[in-house]
Amino acid sequence: MKTLIPGPGLLKSILPYQYLLSAAFLFILLVVAILLFIVFFLQQHRKRRLRKVQLRALFSDLIAGIAICESEEERKETLQEFLQQQKNLRLQQSFTRNVLIREIVRTKDSISGSAANNLQWLYETLSLDKDSLRRFGSSQWYRKASAIQHLAEMQQTKHLVKIYRDTNHANYHIRTEAQIAVVKLTGFSGLRFLNIVSHPVSQWQQLSLISQLQQSEADATMIAPWLQSENSSVVEFALRLVAIYRCHELYDLAMACLQHASPVVRLQTLGAAKEICNETTLPTLLQHFDKAGKGEQIAILELLSVIGAGSGEIGFLTVQLQHADEGIRYRAMQLIQEISPAWSSQVMLHMKDNPSFAAILPILQKQAV
């Protein structure tokens, strides 16, 4: 009987089949491992979420109890009683402490007075500021930004210098949180970062900063150099402050911004002019009109009505009836009606056959009735 010896052809046909089996087995193992990891991850996430819900419920009771305390002794008794009842709380774990920090900050944001002071006491007594400071040192921007927010809300002025250094940070989120924080901690003087900031201060950020200044008095000597800043967004913000605080002493510096290269700044200048106008404002605006863009021209016409244009401006307004823009022609005619109804009637009679007035003349005639 002959023994069969596999030839080269048979070996070649068997080996690829074995490789395929091995590859399929490894693939199945990989899929199983991934599925097990997903199941494990979801279980851990669920446990973490449930734990967070439990902690929030526990801490809400503690926070409510501390908030209504009327003395140092009462605060200590309330905290001690809570810690004795919750011996298995594991308050030293970072997850637990982070949940507590968020609950304290969230609650303090909606209260004031002695209740807010009590929550600040709780935050400091449990050394939660150290946890926030560790997050502040994180390389992850969202951790750092949230830490700045927490430190500011809890009035941690002892960390002001560290926060101030980030008011010109390259990361937008860190920078904006730091800017809001220094203003929240120190009031109007916190705006001194505008002397050094090289990044744009967005309009949303400007409004956020203004909301933090509600209880602060302006310092015109600080605003003056900002009106001459090389950062156009700083100039824009300074003009907002001039308007809000009605800094008449900065009139000349503010009106000089009509010559600024940025149209946004020029428009904001007109907004400031409305609040700090004097006897020179009207001629200044009329002189600037022909050099202004369309948006500025409309704003100037609106201002003429506010600051009291009179018969002396009839000639200027009549000239604007020949303007290429229909909106400007319409607003100029409205102002003429306000100042001199008799003259406006003559003008409308003269313009009735003018095709450029075909669309707006019926509206003006109705308003004149």
Description:
The protein is mainly alpha-helical and 369 residues long. The protein has a domain at 92-190. The chain has helices spanning 8-67, 72-85, 94-108, 113-125, 128-136, 141-153, 160-164, 172-186, 203-211, 220-226, 232-245, 251-255, 263-276, 281-289, 294-307, 314-319, 326-339, 341-351, 361-368. 27% of the residues are buried.
Low-confidence stretches: none
Average pLDDT figure: 87
**Which strand-content bin applies to the residues?**
under 5%
Structure classification: mainly alpha
How far the N terminus sits from the C terminus, by CA atoms, comes to: 125 Å
Beta strands, count: 0
What assembly state would you assign to the polypeptide chains in this entry? single chain
* Largest beta-sheet details: none
Secondary structure tally, helices: 19
Residues in helix, %: 55-70%
What global shape is seen?
elongated
Order of helices and strands: HHHHHHHHHHHHHHHHHHH
Rg calc: 35 Å
What's the gist of this structure?
With 369 residues, the chain is mostly helical.
Which secondary structure elements does this structure contain, and how are they paired or packed?
Layout: H1 8-67, H2 72-85, H3 94-108, H4 113-125, H5 128-136, H6 141-153, H7 160-164, H8 172-186, H9 203-211, H10 220-226, H11 232-245, H12 251-255, H13 263-276, H14 281-289, H15 294-307, H16 314-319, H17 326-339, H18 341-351, H19 361-368
Helix pairs in contact: 1-3, 3-4, 5-6, 6-8, 10-11, 11-13, 13-15, 14-15, 15-17, 17-18, 18-19
